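Record type: monomer structure entry
Structure origin: computed from sequence
Chain ID: A
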Amino acid sequence: MVSGFNLTLMIGPVVPVPVSQDVLDALTSVSVTINSDSVSVFQLEFTLSNRSPLQTIFLLAGGASIPLVRVVIIVTVGGAAEVLMDGVMTNHEIRPGSDASHSVLTITGEDLSKVMDYFDFSGIPYPAMPNEARVALIVAKYAFLGIIPLVIPSVLIDIPIPTERIPEQKGKDLAYVKALADEVGYVFYIEPGPEPGMSIAYWGPEIKVGVPQKALSINMDAATNIESVSCSFNSQSRVIPYVLVQIPQTHVSIPIPIPDITPLNPPLGLISPIPLNFEPVENSAKYSPIRAAVIGLTKAARTSEAASASGSLNVVRYGAVLKARRLVGLRGVGEAFDGLYYVKSVTSKIKRGEFKQDFTLTRNGLLSTLPQVPV
């Protein structure tokens, strides 16, 4: 245990194993970035002696002899272990160190969704299977990596009749699964944990409800648990999408605006900016009214995040690991920006004796919808 937290690093082909003490001693920094709307990445930095056998081992791990080298990063804070990253190495870089006898090895990588981007499976048929069934079948082939599918059925169940058409996969698994998600206004990502060696492949709506994490506090004397935070409000960013619904009898298309509030995306701010832009949902005329509305709701929710906050915290003082894709309370920054936020991204930075996180929070407007921020 060092300064209130403990780091566990596991590396290996397909099945990672805890690294030796020599590797941990050479490790100088760890960086993990989790984004709610893009791939998650990590970076490991080692300082090695030019004669160290670890240089050869790491470089061989990045070569063609071992095509898939897996990395699992685990931190334990306050007795609770959190899997920060479960991914694969994608790049190795060596540069001269601070003296002539040492060099710096930097390893970068991405989460396990990268494995879904290796092979092109175009042409595989999926007869009589709706989108969710195709996703579950695609993700199932990666069970050997400990990936468990969490597929939420869409209200837009469309089962193609085999005598009329048989859907075929277009492109690699990752691109195809994301395309299927876009068709019904869903998101897809792979989240590490809850146990080392396990990951959850989530395909479903973006959820902005649930139990908030421990509140982020500043300017509150002994209760302060973050180092810095800055807030902003962009009144020009909000967009109201509209769909074109065609009346079959007249073939006339009627534009219908879509709100940005759903049961899974409730307003976190009382005052939202007045929308200045109206944008059509592409190809909405060829969709059913329900499908066009769902896609429009998703687009509206993604452009409604006018208020944002970014800052940094010391994890040991905060007492827990802040997680992306969840809610968190913010207090001490003033009445306009206090309240609940959605954690858009978190970057964890670990050095010897130091564990900090940079965060970005978003919500739809100013003023809290709650009388008191949950602590």
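Annotation 1: The chain has a mean pLDDT of 85.
Annotation 2: The longest helix spans residues 289-303.
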